[in-house]
TrEMBL record:
<dbReference type="InterPro" id="IPR021109">
    <property type="entry name" value="Peptidase_aspartic_dom_sf"/>
</dbReference>
<keyword id="KW-0812">Transmembrane</keyword>
<keyword id="KW-0064">Aspartyl protease</keyword>
<keyword id="KW-0645">Protease</keyword>
<keyword id="KW-0472">Membrane</keyword>
<feature type="domain" description="Peptidase A1">
    <location>
        <begin position="1"/>
        <end position="236"/>
    </location>
</feature>
<protein>
    <recommendedName>
        <fullName>Peptidase A1 domain-containing protein</fullName>
    </recommendedName>
</protein>
<dbReference type="GO" id="GO:0004190">
    <property type="term" value="F:aspartic-type endopeptidase activity"/>
</dbReference>
<keyword id="KW-0378">Hydrolase</keyword>
<comment type="similarity">
    <text>Belongs to the peptidase A1 family.</text>
</comment>
<dbReference type="InterPro" id="IPR033121">
    <property type="entry name" value="PEPTIDASE_A1"/>
</dbReference>
<feature type="transmembrane region" description="Helical">
    <location>
        <begin position="278"/>
        <end position="297"/>
    </location>
</feature>
<dbReference type="InterPro" id="IPR001461">
    <property type="entry name" value="Aspartic_peptidase_A1"/>
</dbReference>
<dbReference type="GO" id="GO:0006508">
    <property type="term" value="P:proteolysis"/>
</dbReference>
<keyword id="KW-1133">Transmembrane helix</keyword>
<dbReference type="Pfam" id="PF00026">
    <property type="entry name" value="Asp"/>
</dbReference>
Length: 348
């Protein structure tokens, strides 16, 4: 992960940033007058939440879906028609402190049910029991067969402004994003077959949630830019390295690009970057010059001290001072003196 202040790093996202206004809430003052005010959190409005491309915001019959994915365990082995209303999507809140995705109890329950997950509720004694995924009280976690397909969980933003030509923006989570392998013994203790390798669904429900919290799993897949000055959120698919540059996002490379000032042109950015590079080279040359003067003074000091040590016994010209940058100076005696191992003197 990387934190960039005052700009963005285009090498770590694909394409251009898609911008979403921070959602506004209706507030009432002391006189009862209502007005719209921006949220204090980084959240944006959602037009829809979908399961495998099918909206959760309309009433659907379960028979509309593929039998391979949805099998119900009713005693009479017959299909039942589901008439429970899906909750409105409302909003998506970006929160890097949350490990999983968190949503309303009904919405998460529908997603678990559509994927034929086993929903568990824990008790105060460390045990758990299987409950109906559509139970109004919700559940604590959901498990499913790791080998089975998983329908995607898709978030469709509302009122987006995009820099790209594609206006159909959807933030999707697939099987690799939402499943994590769990200890089989833990699942067996819950009464689920031990012959199946189970995975934990990284989506949790909250009875108090009216929208969706997009946690660390979202940041693992999407690059996020928070524009405080313009009260908006920029999102794009995250990548490790992408050399393609979005020209529309060049205005964000400056120090003030994400602080309400977005009028700099690409040429100004280039000129500013060149000036910065020139300043760095001047600083580097100055440091090298200072180091050279220091080394010259150090060598003169070393010769002066050696003259004091060899007071007339040897000429200083008979010595070979081998500066090998290892922190020591080697004293090798001249050829007309009996050969001996070089002495080593530490240079401080």
């Amino acid at each position: 992960s990387e934190l960039v202040l005052g700009g963005v790093n285009q090498n770590h996202y694909e394409g251009c940033l898609n911008w979403h206004d921070v959602q506004s809430h209706v507030k009432t003052d002391e006189k009862g007058k209502a007005s719209a005010a921006p949220s204090e959190l980084w959240e944006f409005a959602l037009a829809d939440v979908q399961v495998g491309g099918e909206s959760m915001m309309v009433v659907r019959d379960v028979t509309d879906f593929d039998d391979d994915f949805y099998t119900l365990d009713d005693d009479d082995h017959t299909r039942r028609t589901l008439k429970k209303e899906r909750p409105p999507a409302s909003y998506a809140l970006l929160d890097s402190s949350s490990s999983f995705l968190i949503g309303p109890t009904a919405g998460v329950g529908w997603y678990a049910f559509y994927n034929d997950a086993a929903c568990l509720r824990y008790n105060n004694f460390g045990g758990s029991s299987i409950v109906d995924c559509l139970d109004d009280e919700g559940f604590d976690s959901a498990m499913m067969d790791c080998d089975r397909p998983l329908l995607s969980l898709d978030f469709v933003p509302y009122g987006s402004t995009t820099n790209s030509d594609d206006s159909d923006i959807v933030y999707s989570f697939e099987k690799d994003d939402l499943l994590i392998l769990v200890d089989t013994d833990t699942v067996v203790s819950s009464g689920i077959s031990e012959d199946i390798q189970f995975c934990l669904l990284r989506v949790m429900s909250s009875p108090s949630a009216t929208g969706w919290v997009l946690g660390a799993d979202f940041f693992n897949k999407y690059y996020a830019a928070f524009d405080y000055g313009n009260r908006r959120i920029g999102l794009a698919p995250a990548v490790e390295l992408d050399d393609d540059i979005c020209t529309d996002d060049l205005v964000l490379l400056g120090n003030s690009g994400l602080n309400g000032v977005s009028t700099k042109s690409a040429s100004n950015n280039t000129q500013s970057s060149s000036s910065s590079h020139a300043g760095l080279w001047i600083s580097f040359a100055l440091i090298v010059t200072i180091l050279n003067f220091g080394l010259l003074y150090r060598r003169k000091w070393k010769k002066k001290n050696l003259e004091n040590i060899f007071d007339g016994g040897l000429e200083l010209s008979d010595l070979d001072l081998d500066d090998d940058d290892d922190g020591y100076g080697e004293l090798a005696l001249a050829e007309d003196v009996e050969t001996m191992e070089p002495a080593r003197m530490e240079i401080i």
